[in-house]
Amino acid sequence: MRDVAVIGVGLTKFGEIWDRSFRQLIVEAGSKAILDAGIEGKDIDAMYVGSMSSGRFIGQEHVGALVADASGFYNLHIPSTRVEGACASGGLAVRQGYLSVASGVNDIVVIGGIEKMNDVAGTSATETLATAADQEWEAFFGATFPGLYAFIATRHMHEYGTTKEQLAQVAVKNHANGALNPYAQYQKEIKLEHAINATMVAYPLGLLDCSPVTDGSAAVVLCSAERAKEFTDTPVKIIGAGQASDSLALHGRRDITTLDATVHAAQMAYKQAKVTSKDIQLAEVHDCFTIAEICAIEDLGFVKKGDGGKAIDNNITTRDGSQPVNTSGGLKAKGHPVGATGVAQIIEIVLQLQGRAEKRQIPDARIGLAHNVGGSGATCTVHIMEGM
Amino acid sequence: MSVPRFWREIPQRYNLIGNKCEICSKVYFPPRESCPVCRRKSIGHIKDLKLSGKGEVFTYSIIHVSSGEFEEQVPYPIAIIKLDEGPMITAQIVDCDPDCVKIGMRVESTFRQIQQDGYTGALYYGYKFKKV
Ligand SMILES: [Zn+2]
Known about the structure:
The complex is a heterodimer. By secondary structure, chain A is of the alpha/beta class.
């Protein structure tokens, strides 16, 4: 295994992007990443595309080849592979690209994440997201995707005394961060009482506990670390890349309030990076729902199990806290185009470590972590990055 | 949902047929092809078991925004129930006000219509749970 670095990043605006197509979005993100890296098409050894459900959202499968084609690379015959793991599709695509470079098979790869979710009606988007759950034993009986995270929230409240106000604090914090991110879907702050009293989606989760339905794309260029300085003065090394799986259905888990896939992916990444949770200076975690951020910071080891709800009052995860979480605004405010999310998380950490995060910049950040979850926790990737 | 896809799961959904590993005695619902604890040793030693349908609410939610098939039922309570034989199961709670559902509440299974397919008109039945 050899070292791998990120040498270029590209993002589209996240939101309801009515005037742009699937192809236009991913070509925009990919082109930006390629220009940022200073490479050209002939330098690319392979492409990976993370997309959860292009088939249901736009009626188009085979999007690995489609992206190579739309990028104008079809005549270079670059191998392009689509990777799927529900909302973790982007993180999985990054890890596949990482492994292909670490192994020595490829020198330079481009990874794109994409979801175009607003071309279908809202109910249809809800049904498509529910395909990340167990169709036969959860969704068939009326469990929705927010409903599964609501199960986690209800039990977390029961076991650890977590409150609805603490959930709302996560939304308020992430919106405050999103307000500073020009690529975010929601660039405005929200008030605590609005978050607490928002329309109920799945008790105890209200509308402002949920990430939105989003169109958007993100892309990164990876390169072997030994060649990275040929392309950029500020490469960011991937020092740990973990991945783990768990039972597809939430009711099959060892513990309903712990995402064991997160625990195991994090252990794998920490071990490879030779760091502990205490060394992580900032993180992008998978806050598809407010309760998910609370569980993530526990399962990643930033706080003790059960203490996640207190992290904002204890000034841990805020931008001026000891371990800032979701400086981008997170899935909650930045938006959650599911296949793009895992790639966009990597980009926020890269920008922070390069000192390019503008108004969101965390001073002197050297080591950051990105945590991407599929479904209610059946798939997880954890990437740890360090400035070179 | 296609009719054959539903039909294959009728024994489990109508009669709560799970299975039990004869090596380690662990009970599974839905039934598994092999025991994840004993793995290859369990092959040929995992037998069907009809579950009692009795258990308690482990955690719950009240669904206000559903997928299309359930739109006429909202708001409806749904829970993960810990069955007395051990397995956890996801199902709706019926015959009570949504607000009456609590963690630890004793429940038992009841046979109900789950959803109706708007396109074919097919009716799908299975288990829900009610307060004991
Ligand atoms: Zn066994």
